[in-house]
Here is the input.
Amino acid sequence: WEDGRLMRIVRLANYVGPRSGGMRTALRELGAGYLAAGHDPVLIIPGRRRGDEATAQGRMITRYGPIVPFTGGYRALLGRRRLAALLTELRPDRLEVSDRTTLRWTGQWARAHGVPAVMVSHESLTGLFSLPADVSGMSRWRSRLLSERATALADALNCRSSRNYQRIVCTTRWAAAEFERIGAPNLTRIPLGVDLELFSPERYSDAARDSYAKPGQTLLVHCARLSVEKKPHRSLAALAGLRAAGLDAVLVVAGDGPLRARLERAARRASLPVRFAGFVTDPKELATLLASADVVIAPGPVETFGLAALEALACGTPVVVSASSALPEVVGTAGIAVTGEDFAGGVRAILARDPIARRAAARARAEEFGWPASVTAFLAVHEALNTDSFRPLGQVQA
Here is the structure.
């Protein structure tokens, strides 16, 4: 490192709260890894009030951020001048930004102050901007027009990000595709990880399973935020299709979000056996639920990694995912990728496999992803910026 001194890595993120999912997990694990390696990680996030505390992932600074409408309570950091002053006060050796909305300007700040900066792409702009085009009944030409406009807008914003940050980190080939499309020379791919001790087949519990399903019933789990981009209605539709085909299945929805009330009404109208468990705050309880399920459904079409799906695999539970997302490359042959809306068919395909073999395959796939390897790869990126911030680094495989 520089002059034998370890790095102060200042990290910024939006949309992180007490009920955040994969983003919160990734920030926590990476920060804890940086700290364990002897660095000085500092995380800045939005919240209801100011705060500054020492945590297991390093120093955590909270600054007031207003609630973003239609996000179910997520907040974002605004006040560019005050945030810039805080960054100047912190004097970072590296900047790591996990946001592509209100914090994109920090790349320019970092360049102006000679601070090597990394943007971590946790979402696909192309996918998010294309969501409005996924409307039933929309004409083909209008859908294509909206898709083209979404791609053009995403390309313009991604070009700016590529110029303003020394390194762009994506977690999957799927997520990296939109940067490869614009020929970004500073792209690195690093898979995230999973806690293989916490999320384990040993978390299976007959008592937990009995609390959700009767003997002989198939227990399905949807574990994701209940928001538009996650497409949670697909899990309800899968349950309805399975029951119509004669399979005695029940569904547990673990998660909360702006669509919860609408989904609850839909389940009642259709007389579907759905348990809305809300956001599961205890990680061990979540791991027990995932390990005790027969199949987990992850229907979101724009997932760039899908930590919840990987946690399910680590628990020995196979996952049915959307073929249009990054999840097929994460779950591999341990899951089923569905094209279109037939998630019921995906569940049936999973259940047709030998139960012992499918659970063993799920766990084996998850064991290919560990947080220590991911932390090492992220630190390799930061270290490489030490000597030549603008030289393309290529791909770092964790």
Summary: Residues 133-137, 387-398 have pLDDT under 50 and may be disordered.
